[in-house]
Amino acid sequence: MLHLSNKTARHVVLHLQGLTRPPHVSFEQGGLEGLIHQLGFVQMDSIPWVERAHHMILFARNQTYRTKHLKHLHEKERRLFENWTHDASLIPCEFWPYWKHKFRRDEPRLKQKFIKWQGDGFINRVEALRNSIEQNGVLRSRDLEKPKGQKLEMWQWHDGKAALEYMWRTGQFAIAKREGFQKVYDLCYRTIHKDHYQQEVSHDAFTDWACRSALDRLGFGSPRDIAKYWDLLSIDEVKAWLEDRAAQETKQITVECCDGSQPKEFYARPDIEHVIAKLEKLPDRIRMLSPFDPVIRDRKRLKWLFGFDYTIEIYVPPEKRKYGYYVFPLLERDRLIGRVDAQTKRKEDTLAATKLWLEPKVRWSKARDDKFQAELIRQSRLCEVKKVDWDQERIVT
Questions:
Q1: Residue 84 contacts residue 165 (beta carbons within 8 Å)
Q2: Fewest CB atoms within 10 A around its CB: which of 2, 91, 112, 273?
Q3: DSSP-assigned states of every residue in 225-238
């Protein structure tokens, strides 16, 4: 059985997640689409604390990326669609046939949930919205009048918004574009290219793709890891696939844990040894990662593989936060060396790093400080602000 050292395992993961790509080389034709295909999807987030998560995820892999590039690929070229993985994500349109299976299996559960929440008249409102979009074109939730006399807080949905979201989550509406960050809904056949919209795959082909494609991007993983990557299958479905296909589609390996504890046994993609032989060097820089970066997203895997214990604390009361409201992990080569509380202050035209916490056994040096300041300057360009505010005295020891 092949054994991977912890260092090699981390390198494999970072490589498969696009972090060994030369970060300074401009995208060629199709380059951004290729990167998103490599990742599988890019999770979206509404909070532009530094910049929105989807932009930071792509920027961490290529510093020539700008926010307009993703907008063009999604809204003009129609090469991406927006729907649900673990959360709202942008996904290559060629994966649409597989999401049809997710829509079909999710619809009964979501229908029951929304009717229970919105009442018996919910389906009638859904049909009215479908007819409206068919006849009149795209809709935004703000286009729908709220019920008279109903006082709503900002996080509450009025009936029309709920109906729009139900139709989107079940694959009946698509997101044609975002205005600011507000969804603009349209019919799927008008937003998904017909080559993908009309294509069908069997359930067996869907299951096989969901398992293999997850393992291709993970490198190695447990049935839980494979199921969790796309959130398309249950763990039992993955186990059944492994029982049937493991000998042909996977290789069994062991991986060293970062703390030196008992190595873990995993299924790996069958060409894992070839992947290791072809690993590219990791760029010698510090990179600020989004909390929703695919390397960070699975906190359990992150902890045993990288030794990094991370929780996003936006929903933690201020007095109970260990670090801060929105804190970004810092990646140096194959190590997560700390986390920084940083924020873009647009009125001041500044990106400010207010506090930095180092991981145990990480020492700050002039070389590290230079690399960190270089990363802040890069991030300021993404955010389109002119100044950076940082002082080493803000390091928390």
A1: no
A2: 112
A3: HHHHHHS-S-HHHH
Question: What distance in Å separates the CA atoms of residue 340 and residue 323, rounded to the nearest whole number?
Answer: 9
pTM (whole model) above 0.90: yes
Q: Residue type at 337?
A: I
Asked whether 44 and 89 are in contact (CB, 8 A), the reply is: yes
pLDDT digits (tens, 9 = 90+) for 56-80: 999 999 999 999 999 999 999 999 9
**Encoded amino acid at 165, one letter:** E
Q: What is the DSSP string of 37-99?
A: HHHS-EE--S--SSS-HHHHHHHTT-TT--HHHHHIIIIIS--EEEEESSSEEEEEGGGHHHH
From the number of C-beta atoms within 10 Å of its C-beta (0-12, 13-18, 19+), residue 64 rates as middle
Q: How far apart are CA 45 and CA 216, in angstroms?
A: 25
- Return the number of other C-beta atoms located less than 10 Å from residue 328's C-beta: 27
Separation CA 215–CA 241 (nearest Å): 12
Map tokens 């070839």 to a residue.
Answer: 274
Comparing CA positions, the residue from 61, 56, 14, 3 lying closest to residue 35 is 61
Residue type, 65: Y
The 3-class SS string of 93-160 reads HHHHHHHHHHHHHHHHHHHHHHHHHHCCCHHHHHHHHHHHHHHHCCECHHHCCCCCCCCCCCCCCCHH
What are the respective helix, strand and coil percentages of the chain, to the nearest 5? 45, 20, 35
Which sign does the torsion angle of CA 215, 218, 222, 228 carry?
Answer: negative
Contact 4, 255 (CB under 8 A): yes
d(CA 204, CA 117): 34
Q: Give 184's contacts (C-beta < 8 A, 6+ positions apart).
A: 138, 139, 140, 175, 176, 177, 178
Residue type for 291, please? P
Q: Which two tokens stand for residue 94?
A: 């060629």
Amino acid at 122: F
Partner residues linked to 350 by β-bridges: 345, 387
